[in-house]
């Protein structure tokens, strides 16, 4: 896995349904949005709005999806759930960190995926769940 030190030049995003404010911290330790919802050891971030959009749309919880602009407070590494197993070289620019993310802004004008795309992704995630595939948390 590649580890990148902070600070970073490019903006990073975090998609969720949590209603948060600038200055808040997003940290690990909460129930994961995926699989058996076990306690997440990492918080996830991305450098692409598309990946953040998926996060905002697929996150569990009530309310609308939100995309926050975040700054890592510590080193980040490639997300092995996407990079090492599915997309070598990290074309999705997806990362994780055990350190909190500081919210520095919010993206309000993002466009969601079509209902068909969302259903296809939900079906795929349900199939992974049926197969017992869990997120890599080591």
Structure description:
It is a single chain. By secondary structure, this protein is of the alpha+beta class. It has a single domain, classed as ADP-ribosylation fold, CATH 3.20.170.40. Helices cover 19% and strands 25% of the residues. It is built from two helices and eight strands. The strands form two sheets. It has a four-stranded antiparallel sheet. The longest helix is centred in the C-terminal third of the chain and has 16 residues, at 115-130. It starts with a strand and ends in an 8-residue tail after the last helix. The model is unreliable at 1-7 (pLDDT under 50).
Q: Layout of SSEs?
A:
Blueprint: E1 3-4, E2 12-16, E3 25-26, E4 43-46, H1 49-58, E5 66-72, E6 76-78, E7 94-97, E8 101-107, H2 115-130
Main features:
single chain, 138 residues, alpha+beta, ADP-ribosylation fold, 4-stranded antiparallel sheet, disordered N terminus
How many strands, which pairing sense, and closed or not: the largest β-sheet? 4 strands, antiparallel
Separation of the first and last Cα atoms: 11 Å
Residues in helix, %: 10-25%
Radius of gyration, whole Å: 14 Å
Proportion of residues in β-strands: 15-25%
> What do we call the CATH homologous superfamily?
Rifampin ADP-ribosyltransferase domain
What is the residue-mean pLDDT, rounded to a whole number? 82
Highest-level CATH class: Alpha Beta
Number of helices: 2
CATH architecture: Alpha-Beta Barrel
> In which order are the strands of the major sheet placed?
1-6-7-4
State the assembly state of the protein chains.
Answer: single chain
Per the principal axes of the C-alpha atoms, what is the gross shape?
Answer: globular
Structural class: alpha+beta
Give the beta-strand count: 8
CATH topology description: ADP-ribosylation fold
Run of helices and strands:
EEEEHEEEEH
Domain count: the total is: 1
pLDDT under 50 segments (min length 5)?
A: 1-7
């Amino acid at each position: 896995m590649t580890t990148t030190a902070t600070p970073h030049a490019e903006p990073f995003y975090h998609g969720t349904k949590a209603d948060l404010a600038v200055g808040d911290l997003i940290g690990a330790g909460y129930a994961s949005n995926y699989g058996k919802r076990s306690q997440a050891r990492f918080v996830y971030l991305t450098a692409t709005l598309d990946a953040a959009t998926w996060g905002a749309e697929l996150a569990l919880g009530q309310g609308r999806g939100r995309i926050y602009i975040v700054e890592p407070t510590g080193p980040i590494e490639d997300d092995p759930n996407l990079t090492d197993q599915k997309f070598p070289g990290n074309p999705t620019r997806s990362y994780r960190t055990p350190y909190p993310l500081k919210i520095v802004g919010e993206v309000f004008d993002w466009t969601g995926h079509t209902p068909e795309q969302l259903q296809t992704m939900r079906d795929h995630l349900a199939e992974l769940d049926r197969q017992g595939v869990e997120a890599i948390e080591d």
